[in-house]
Amino acid sequence: MNISYKWLKKLVPDLTARAEDLEEKMSTTGIEVEGVTTPAFGLSKLVVGEIVSFEDISETHLHVCKVNVGEVEPLQIVCGAGNIRVGMKTITALVGARIAENTKIKKGKMRGYESFGMLCALDELGVSDRINPMKHEEGIYEMPIDAIVGDSIFPYLDMDDEIIELSITPNRADALSMLGVAHEVAAIYGLEVKKEIYNLVESDQATVDQISIKVETDNVPTYKIRIIKDVKIAKSPVWLQNRLMNAGIKPINNVVDVTNYVLMYYGQPLHSFDFGKFGSDEILVRQAKNGEKLTTLDHIDRELTSEDIVITSAGLPVGLAGVMGGENTEITDKTVTVALEAALFDPISIRKTSQKYNLRSEASSRFERGINQATVREALDFAAAMITKLAGGEVLKGVVESNNFQPELVKVSISLGRINASLGTELSQAQVKTIFEALGFSLAIEGDKFVCEIPSRRWDIHIEADLIEEVARMYGYDKLPATLPSTQNAGERTPMQKLRLKLRKQLEAAGLNEVIGYSLTTPEKSFEFSGDIDTTYLMMPMSEERQVLRTSMIPGLLDIINYNQNRKNEDVSIYEIGNVFLPSDAEDGRPAEVPDLAIAISGNITEKSWNEKTTPIDFFYAKGIVENILAGYDRVEFEPYSENKGMHPGRTARIKLNDRVLGFVGQVHPALVKKYDIAETYVAVLDVNILIEEVPHQTVFEEIPKVQAVTRDIALIVKEEISHAEIFSAIKSRNVKNLKKIELFDVFSGGKLGAGLKSMAYTLTFQNLDDTMTDEQINNAMNKIMKSLSEKVQAEIR
Questions:
Q1: Are strands 615-616 and 32-37 parallel, antiparallel or unpaired?
Q2: 466 is known to lie in a ligand binding site
Q3: Residues 495-527: pLDDT tens digits?
Q4: Long-range contacts for 562-565 (Cβ within 8 Å, ≥24 apart)?
Q5: How far apart are CA 13 and CA 27, in angstroms?
Q6: Domain stop point among 352, 369, 401
Q7: Is the dihedral of CA 572, 577, 579, 580 positive or negative?
Q8: Residue 665's domain is classified under what CATH number?
Q9: HSE on the CB side for 509, CA within 13 Å?
Q10: What range does the domain containing 183 cover?
Q11: If you read the UniProt record, what top EC class would you report for this enzyme, in one word (predicted)?
């Protein structure tokens, strides 16, 4: 919403605050100001010039003009506009002037004729085509006849105005009008609002003799029509065009411009029909019929449905109620009789229609958010009087309306104690009374209680909390006392919060980036990594891609990898900590929300350079990230796992923590990789609840050994199917006291070993905390280990 400071000053005459002051004050009292701009910013040396004479340059469209700009001699300016005439006053850019895009006007020569300036159209001053009443090909802009030659053009075109851009929240739709903003500013500074007045004079002929109204829908609380005869359609006066353009609206003609002016002034959308095109003396307001068609003012044919409200005459739609009028009753230069409409329409219905046709208008945006229901008739009368002043004609006597709708004013009560308790203040009754009176609330005081009758222009106020908010913002949020919560217990993070923070630090230290995926997915994706389990469907999903609650986060991570790799970001390492939704026995049928950690990595660990080869990500890299997370936990095991259909059966491990299944890590199945159109990818999933439940209760400090460790190597020949985990378990099972570390350093198969066999070599590290181990102690330990390996995995010691 663009607010003209000049217009605002006319509505609040005693306002002395500058536009910059309003920017800060309004923002701190609840209506955010985006900024203040001046249309003339960056423009200079633009004056009113009068064309004294002109001559055509042969064989061109150019003219050599003599232009009076208030100097001793007229300036010679070459111009190609087609609407030049002697006596015309126009915008003249002098040599050295700045126009749009910081273009500087210089002395020039065209077809042998010197030119000392430029005659301008509005677009050359930076006026957007969206609000410019003249097309560029129509020529230069004609200034008012009373403009004084040599004066700056800015005051005449209100380009010296200051435009305050407001960001209106849905709860303050009352500020979508000049009157609404004027009341707000007046309340802030304790001033009075002075309304504009146009006296309505009616003819003896009755409106009811010309037209009747019938409403056949509950979505139209009231509908009113006035008839204005013998109007003369023409351009609006410059002051009106200026106000509309500064408000962001394109001037059309004197009748349409008045309806737009009233829209900005009252916030009441109006519509003007060419009454002569109705073809009937009855207006029927109803729901549209499915398949019914209407060509709107934007020249687009629209097929309507029964959800739309239409204005009809002679059985045909002539307007899409609350959104846009029909082309068949558009005001044109030939219009003589105007039917002027004012109404209330259901906000939800208007919103649906506007969204369905992607047809957002100034009218629809106000109907959607609500309008002042008490000023519908007032706005209609104001517009009718204004049209007769600008377009002539006469207003027929009376208003034809569906009913005499009058809104019931809301009363809200609140005590002084409740206000002070909520805000932490010690305001007096007189202070609160002053605030409510400044806001225009009719007030009765009953002891400690305020009984406020809310004016219809503030339809956002209904309950006690609304009154508290009004007091807070008008008193000043910056004046409210700030205190810490009164408690003896300092807050701390929950175990879940602590674990999540720790996981984030570990994963980001490993080079992974956090992502947040959708909780909703497709039925097909919900089964890819979770198997055939029950899923939760939405009753009214937004789309087919978002209709089922996820049972695994992996599909969402694969989608993100696809998005990145399609944009040449080949190396992707991401993680997500979030909830998955699994079947539960809840009586209301709700799924169980289980917190999970999911990891997905694809691409290379290191990129190719002059001194280093590319290192692709593999299973062991992904497993290493998981091992780093689980460092410090007891009894972590990895075992082969081939039951997950979404994972590679030979490169996937199930993760166990203290004999509980924690999750899995491995390579995504090549078929799924192809389906998602991504490179080879490795993933891992961990159950966060189990990580919390299995956190070791105590960390035992071990003294730094005083003696060196001793290592021994051992090489085994085992069957091909024997895993490292089984050998590791066999070594640990002997509980050798001083065995500190087991490290695999070599694996090979084939050759002289024969089929089905492999060799695995380990380094075993022994260390006693107090004394250097003897050869006998080490040999005894090695014998126990070799015996265990022979018994448990049938290993042959080399």
A1: unpaired
A2: yes
A3: 899 999 999 999 999 999 999 999 999 988 988
A4: 562/676, 562/677, 562/678, 565/602, 565/603, 565/677, 565/678, 565/679
A5: 22
A6: 401
A7: positive
A8: 3.30.930.10
A9: 10
A10: 2-38+162-189
A11: ligase
